Amino acid sequence: MNIKEIINTLSEEGYNPYLQERLGIIFNSIDDNKGNPKVNSISQIRIEKEKIIIQYPLGQIPVEKEFKTIEELMKFIRHLFPLD
Q1: CA 20 to 30 Å from 6, out of 12, 29, 58, 76?
Q2: By the 8 A CB rule, do 46 and 53 touch?
Q3: For 54-80, what is each residue's pLDDT tens digit?
Q4: Residue 41, Cβ neighbours under 10 Å: how many?
Q5: Which residues of 54-64 are buried (b: 16+ CB within 10 A; e: fewer)?
Q6: Burial class of 5 by CB neighbour count within 10 A (0 to 12, 13 to 18, 19+)
Q7: Tens digit of pLDDT for each residue in 28-61?
């Protein structure tokens, strides 16, 4: 499991991941037809000690959830941020 594998999986499914290499964080979103991130579709993903952590807003409160595999992460992302 590595950050590039997560980026590739997100891209293949139609999401728009952007890697902030200096921070080691993926900013993920669903873009509108003009290429801008849709409201409430933005999340941050990072790897810490063999865990994948996603942070996303719930209203104005940031929420974090941990996963052990990319498959578990993707199942969650598909549910929370469905593609139209």
Answers
A1: 58
A2: yes
A3: 999 988 899 999 999 999 999 999 999
A4: 18
A5: bebeeeeeeee
A6: exposed
A7: 999 988 988 888 889 999 999 999 999 999 888 9
Residue 36: Cβ-neighbour burial (10 angstroms; 0-12, 13-18, 19+): exposed
Q: What are phi and psi of 83, to 5 degrees?
A: -80, 140
pTM (predicted TM-score): 0.90
Q: Cα 21 from chain centroid?
A: 15
- Around Cβ 11, how many Cβ atoms within 10 Å? 12
Nearest to 56 by CA among 70, 76, 36, 72: 76
Six-digit token pair at 9?
A: 């999986």
3-state secondary structure (DSSP) of residue 75: helix
Residue 84 scores a pLDDT above 80: no
